[in-house]
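quick one, two chains, predict together pls
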Amino acid sequence: MILHDLFDWTSSGVGLTGLALTVGALWQATGAKRAATEAREAVYQRNAADALAEMVRLAEDCEQYLLLERPNEAALRARDIVSRIPKERKRFERFLIADSDKLKALEIVFQELVGQLSLVRSLEDKANARSTGDAIGRAKAELSSVHGRLLSRVDEEDS
Amino acid sequence: MSDKAEELARQLLEKTESGKLIWTFVPENSPEVYWSEYEKFRADLDGGFSFFISRLANGDNKIVEFELSQPGRVVLSVQANNFPIVGGPKTRQLLDIRKSQRPDEPLDAPLIARFRLFSDLFYAARKSAVHEDQTIEKVQQLLERLG
């Protein structure tokens, strides 16, 4: 009789320990999944910031090539930005939030700049070259501020 | 030497844009520039001093030369070009480090500034030469009169 009771208690104990271990493992797995999701989000945000940094660099090159009277190369950079903006907007839409619309507006600005840069002869006029250079400078500053806001969000997440 | 040339070029640009200095076209037919686009302009000052500004272009590559001369010798001769910095990944890496240290200053700012100055002077000289020289218009009028 005593032996039978002992056997029952032991089974119950083993059962309870198993249950506790399962709950613990489940809790840990949930935590690990959350951590993995957060890490993935952080990587996505970094990638978004890197993509913006690359576009800012292209805009800087564009500005410099215009000063050096190499409009074909400047137009190539502007065209590169135009083709990148829709892709990056779609890819990182949830991180860009309101800046997504700003990027859309910048896409139009750079599209117009491609047109201006293809008018090579008109850029020989000092006033035309200056106004095109100013437009590139403003667009570059806008891109740079979008990049800055994205970086500040990344820093907030990190801290 | 190049600082003095830049200072002179700056003054010449100002005088040319305000119409106080007149430039004339200088024909150049040497074989060296046969396959290139070459233009040269000249402005004369009292005392036999002359300034020359010329541009040699091959596609997008341009070399602008600024010269001061007096009879028998060239006093100053400075060039500026629009060749971009080229290099491999190592150069790019070094340039990125330099850029991160001084973000507001373009890598080749002095070179770009000199090219811009000489190029602006070149366009101003060309404009002055074309606007001031009425020969082509006169010849056209004479041809029209011939009937």
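Chain B touches chain A through eleven residues (CB under 8 Å).
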